[in-house]
Specification:
Layout (H helix, E strand, L loop, with lengths): L1 H38 L2 H22 L7 H25 L4 H30 L5 H54 L11 H15 L1 H13 L2 E7 L4 E7 L2 E6 L2 E5 L3 H15 L5 E7 L4 H6 L5 E8 L2 H9 L1 H6 L9 E5 L2 H7 L4 E7 L6 H4 L4 H10 E10 L7 H12 L4 E9 L3 E9 L19 H7 L21 H10 L4
Parallel strand pairs: 5-6, 5-8, 6-7, 8-9
Antiparallel strand pairs: 1-2, 2-3, 3-4, 9-11, 10-11
Helix pairs in contact: 1-2, 1-4, 1-5, 2-4, 3-4, 3-5, 3-6, 4-5, 5-6, 15-17
Amino acid sequence: MKETLNRTEQRILLFSVFVLSLCGIIYELILGSLATYLLGNPIQQYSITIGVFLSSMGLGSYLSRFVVKNLIRNFVYIEVLLGLTGGLSVLVLNFLFSFSFTFYLLHVFFLIVIGTLVGLEIPLLTRILRQYGSLKEIISNVLTLDYIGGLAGSLFFPLVLFPFFGRYLAAVLVGIANISIAFLILARIEYTGKRKWDYALPLVSAGVLVFLAVNSSLVTGILQKKMFYDDIIFYKRSRYQEIVVTRNSADFRLYLDGSLQFSTTDEYRYHEMLVHPALTMVDKKKIDVLIMGGGDGLAVREVLKSSRVNSVTLVELDEEMINLARNNSTMNRINSGSLKDKRVSVKIGDAYTFLINTRRSYDLVIADFPDPHDESISKLYTDSFYHLVRKRLDSNGIFVTQSTSPLFARESFWCIEKTLSSVFKKVIPYHVFVPTFGDWGFNIASQGGAEVRNYNDSIDYRYFSGEAFAHSRFFPPDAGTVKTGVNTFNRPLLYLYYLKGWRNTDY
């Protein structure tokens, strides 16, 4: 009977190794992705997160030597503390994000505390398991399950937890998993001096996390309200991003992962200047247009104003963004139902892959991508990408791309211009003031001498005109040309310029 009990206990403890390793890697991924979401620059944020977390695990492993009595009870307490700290981490960090210094401090604090507690787990479990077999066999089993659990966690978070639950609820659920292990050990493993009070701490902690999980929609709403201020009229977490639409009186705004995409008070300035200068440069009676990004349908709306447009192909990565733009009544009003037009064909997928696979040529290609705030987006502004664009352009085709702010991200803007100049014969940089964004820039590229023409399309422009475009080509000294490198796939300089520029402004 005793031998059977020991085997059961051993299986429980080895199962705990797997679960705790899974939880540990997920905490690391949650904190790294949260810092990236709020601060940008994923390489820097993940590097800091992994470095601090791993060193803290080392600290925890070292501190485990000082735990010499009541190993099982202390292990239970560690699991409860870890579950509570990890479960509350996203809630606290999100709530205090507006206090930048406090956020940085708390982010490192949670990394150190969670990492240290994770580092305590395996040494203590190994010592507890020591009584069930040889040290060689125990270490082999523990490390095997530890590594398998790490793999499971690294797959479970991006494929299941994050897409379906988001960071906040994922952290709470993983915290509950830690505390569940504490309950399992308390219920199934006997140890000297077990008391009924040993159940009190995990019971209270689990109650807190279960309450937060059950009320996750309410808590998430409070956090979003604190971040966005205006009334939230649409919220959706897609596979790729968090989509939020807000309303303040007559002003509607779209946010993707917390970053403002447009405000209806002035988006016409941005979209008219993105589309119409390049559109008038295309010297053809019928124009085939390719738009990459711009899943909100606003660039499509502007393109369709021209009677010369024969077809529009829109390539958008996120299908949920297309569903919002096509089916939401508010977005339909803003984009004038552009995605329902029979001339528009929507392709869901990556723009880079689309350019590689398509054999069709276009008269006008428009890139309405997010700002190059990280290396993955920066690839859409490389010379390699622009070579693909050039191959898909008709011999007299025009390419235009949004190029961030020449004032606040000056090196970034001129890096895009220089990268385009390494691929195209002619590049025209220009900029416009958009009140909610500030000074914003664009670049038009072609292989010939294209210039803005005045076509009689009976378009009722709100901002664009030949005179406005001529004025937009003048850059004052504080936004003028600066020396930069070319942004390449192997040496992505652009996002570093971008982060450097925006880091130095409070706009």
